[in-house]
Amino acid sequence: MLNRWKISTKIATGFALGLAIFTTIGIISYRGTEQVISTARQEKQTYQVLSQVEDILSLVKDAETGQRGYLLTSDNRYLRPYNQARTALRARLDEFKRLVQDNPGQQSYVQTLDSLVGQKLAELDNTIRLKQANKSDAALKVVQDGEGKRLMDQIRDTVSRMKAGERDLLRTRSQIAENSARRTLNSVLYGMPLGILLLALIGVILNRQITRPLNRVSAVAQKVADGDLTQSLECTRNNTEIEKLMTAFQNMTKSLSALITQAQKSGIQISTSTTQIAAAGRQLEATVNEQVASMHEVNATSRQIASTAGELAKSMDGVAATAHTTTEAASNSQTNLNKMQSAMQNLVLATNAISAKLTVVDEKANNINTVVTTITKVADQANLLSLNAAIEAEKAGEYGAGFAVVAREIRRLADQSAVATLEIEQMVKEMQSSVSTGVMEVDKFSKEVGQYVNDVGDISQQIAGFIQNVQGLTPQFGAVSQRMDEQYRGAEQISLAIGQLSDASYQTVQSIQETNNALTQLDDAAQGLQREISQFKV
């Protein structure tokens, strides 16, 4: 089903799914955040309610304290807390009513508390008025009746119930806020990876549905551009943009292949015909040109032979003298090569002596290594003895203090000996490595020098043979000089005959060149067409 969708539909669907996922996550996060903010506002209101309740109870206590102080002392200063509390209680009760107006459960407690506070203030005001009227006994009797204590207990009980209700409401709201925050966190924590995974899956599907077919089309197009028209695309019956593009490209390739095939056949026929005609014309022209050129060359050569024959006869004497000089120089070179061969043989002997000395050095290095091993063992034994001496000195106490110093010094020397032997052993190993390398290089050099000695001997033998060959040439120079005179006379006769034949061939060449020019132009056009068409493979 997905294969039949258009590209725009696939892309729009992918973006719509991604947008839907992240929109859902955003909505959940927004609602969770809004719930947390609302709960936090309600928690703040709950804390304000608890604070107002505590303040109301505290003001009632202040009023009661001021009333009692006045009843005991008749001092109007004790009425100051009473008057302040009476004034503040009305404002606090009104504020408290405003805070709990959205809580029906607390409104009944508010009405009860308002009534109890009013009764308590009336009771306090009654006792104060009686005291101010010098009716202390009546005021005391009102207090002793317990009405004020009963009202205060009811106020405390009402406040406790209100605080308990607010604390329960606070716990409920805190739990709601925590659950909302957890839902928001879970939606982000699991929704984001799920959204990313789904978008990645959508991207992979779109890549397979869009990119892969386009890559196939691009690869075939590149091969067609390179001239390979044998490529084809597997097209389905899906009515998508990609399939339409692949079908149109396949039809274009077939049409282009048929056109190139027909052009190749026509080009081959034209090229074959023009090639055959041009080849025949060029062959005829080349044959005549060769004849004319040969005639000119033979004519020039015959004249040159005549001239050169005289000069060669004069040069033979100089050649004979030069051959004699060359023989003497080759003899001197052979003598020098023999000296060089002797010197190289001495160099081989010296190289072998150096190799033997290096072998002796390697053996001495092995002996040094054995001595170093012995020194190492002695140092280890000395270290063990110093340890035993230190133990004995420790047992001897103060009498063995000097012996302990000697033991430490022995241990130190043994450690230094061990370090020195390690360094010597390393140096010996490096020297052995260098000696082994030197021995191999000297052997290699000795072999190369021996090869050079053999090469010099071969060169000396070749020079000896060269000397013999040069000495054998001298008697032949006289015979060559006589032959030069005979060739001079024959060359003059040949030159006269060729001059007459050259004039007749010149006219034939001009006619053939005109024909070949026309054939060359036709052949160039046919070859150009064939080269352009041959780039395509059908």
Automatic annotation (TrEMBL):
GO cellular component: membrane
Domain HAMP positions: 208-261
Listed Pfam families: CHASE3 (PF05227), HAMP (PF00672), MCPsignal (PF00015)
One Gene Ontology biological process: signal transduction
SMART domains: HAMP, MA
Matches recorded under CDD domains: HAMP, HK9-like_sensor
Entry's transmembrane regions: 12-30, 188-206
Domain of life (superkingdom): Bacteria
One GO MF term attached to the UniProt entry: transmembrane signaling receptor activity
Alphabetically ordered keywords of this record: Membrane, Transducer, Transmembrane, Transmembrane helix
Ranges of residues in domain Methyl-accepting transducer: 266-502
Membership in a protein family: Belongs to the methyl-accepting chemotaxis (MCP) protein family.
PANTHER family: METHYL-ACCEPTING CHEMOTAXIS PROTEIN MCPB (PTHR32089), METHYL-ACCEPTING CHEMOTAXIS PROTEIN TLPQ (PTHR32089:SF120)
Protein name according to UniProt: HAMP domain-containing protein
